[in-house]
Amino acid sequence: MKTKIEIKSTFESVLFECEKEDNTIKDTIIEAVKRGADLSSADLSGADLSDANLRGANLGYADLRGADLSD
Q1: First to last CA, the chain
Q2: pLDDT digit string, tens, across residues 20-63
Q3: 70, 54, 50: which is closest to 62 by C-alpha?
Q4: Using alpha carbons only, what angle is made at residue 35 by residues 34 and 40, rounded to the nearest 5 degrees?
Q5: pTM, to two decimals
Q6: What's the CA gap between 52 and 43, in Å, rounded?
Q7: Cα separation, 55 vs 57, whole angstroms
Q8: Is residue 28 a contact partner of residue 34, using CB atoms and an 8 Å limit?
Q9: How many angstroms separate the most distant Cα atoms in the chain?
Q10: How far is the CA of 35 from the CAs of 39, 54, 61, 65, 70, in angstroms?
């Protein structure tokens, strides 16, 4: 089943969206980073980002409270 996930800023504006089969927030963030999306001020609180390659991601001012950033 296709699922559309939006990454929103802490101000509720949509920064990036991705729709695909079996989508997860991690997949959407990885795709955003690959495409060079500016995720500064993104609300990623509580997101499971374990094992995600976030190299080059602009996460300045992002809300990462409770996010799993292991590995």
Answers
A1: 29
A2: 999 999 999 999 999 999 999 999 999 999 999 999 899 999 99
A3: 54
A4: 90
A5: 0.86
A6: 16
A7: 6
A8: no
A9: 33
A10: 11, 12, 20, 24, 23
